[in-house]
Specification:
Length: 369
């Protein structure tokens, strides 16, 4: 259930749905070659279903759906799915919007909102979004893992999740000295945001991101439901191959509460990757290195990784495997989401598939991770 971070011929049984623009201006990215490459990757990685899209600026090169959502139900490009850690790109952007509006200061201590948390007088919202606060990741707690796997429909509150992280009062490191991915820190950050604004996270996303960008197929999961049509997911986390689509998403806190579609995520890439909702200074902060990483060429920024000019994420969430990449210098967007087949090796394959696709369509800028 953990979100991973840096997380041939066509068979006659493949169910194929393709749409693309017919303009000749896209000749630099050959549609037929891309379609064949994606189909080959689907077969090689043995996934049950695969949704993928490639866009150059405002031009759709190809969107494609392969395989089955469920038995005898073809996957289609308009299906909704849980985006997992790609939610963190939205969270980072929302934080910077609120900073621009003066509703949150990135350098204020969170003790003003959450005084009872360990080291709250040393931790800032800016540290939380960069994962440099030092709070332990609750998904690594064995008691949490056992409960979440045993009871996949269980609802976890933010208070429940944070308690697993701070139960012994110890942090991984002193705030601001290192970086380590932590679902806990995104969840704490959401609590800070709701206290600072007096509004819920669904309200804030709707007001500042979904409505302004017209993302009417994107939403915040307040329960286990998803809007139709739905790409079904499958998992072997509980030692049996089963439908995981409606497992409760609350275990992810605010690191993975959103759902969306291929086309909405593309529209999001254009706003997120170009900083359309932010001041120049806030966008620079959003994409910047936290300054405590060893490799300036590969780093985790504000809910996403940066490498070779790409902003990307690779979630694995309740049976969904995802990969989201945007290259600002090329204005190139690549998105892949896939689901596991009965072959357990087919889980979490979207990011390796995206890397291989990028090698073909952008050989001078490949993700070296």
């Amino acid at each position: 259930m953990k979100q991973n971070i840096i997380i041939t011929s066509l068979s006659v049984f493949i169910l194929l749905s393709v749409s693309f623009s017919d303009t000749s201006a896209q000749s630099a990215l050959d549609q037929d070659s891309i379609i064949k490459k994606i189909a080959d990757l689907k077969e090689e990685n043995k996934v049950k279903a695969l949704l993928a899209g490639v866009w150059l600026g405002e031009k759709e090169i190809v969107t494609i759906a392969l395989g089955e959502s469920m038995t005898d139900v073809p996957a289609t490009t308009d299906m909704h799915f849980r985006i997992g850690g790609v939610s963190e790109l939205f969270l980072g952007t929302l934080l910077m919007i609120l900073a621009d509006e003066g509703k949150i200061n990135l350098d204020d201590k969170i003790s003003g909102w959450l005084p009872d948390l360990p080291e709250a007088d040393k931790v800032t919202p800016g540290m939380l979004i960069k994962n440099t606060a030092g709070y332990k990741d609750y998904v690594l707690d064995s008691a949490f893992i056992d409960l979440a796997v045993t009871e996949p429909f269980r609802s976890f509150s933010h208070e429940d999740l944070i308690a697993y992280s701070v139960k012994d009062g110890e942090l991984n490191f002193q705030p601001g000295t290192k970086q380590q991915y932590s679902h806990t820190e995104f969840t704490i950050l959401a609590d800070v945001i709701t206290r600072a604004t007096g509004k819920s996270m669904p309200e804030l996303y709707e007001e500042y991101i979904f409505r302004p960008l017209g993302l009417d197929q994107t939403g915040y999961s307040i329960n286990q439901e998803l809007p139709s049509p739905v790409l079904h997911s499958f998992s072997s986390d509980r030692a049996v191959y089963e439908d995981a689509t409606y497992w409760n998403p609350s275990w992810s806190g605010d690191s993975g509460p959103l759902y969306s579609t291929l086309n909405d995520l593309y529209r999001w890439s254009q706003a997120f990757g170009k900083g359309k909702l932010l001041s120049a200074g806030s966008f620079k902060e959003l994409v910047s290195s936290p300054g405590v990483t060893l490799n300036p060429d590969i780093y985790f920024a504000s809910g996403f990784a940066v490498s070779s000019g790409w902003y990307f994420q690779n979630p694995s969430f309740n049976g969904y495997s995802g990969a989201f990449g945007y290259n600002p210098s090329k204005d190139l967007t690549v998105i892949i989401y896939s689901t596991q087949s009965e072959d357990r090796s087919s889980g979490a394959r979207s990011f390796p598939m995206m890397r291989e696709l990028i090698k073909m369509i952008s050989p001078d800028a490949v993700i070296k991770f």
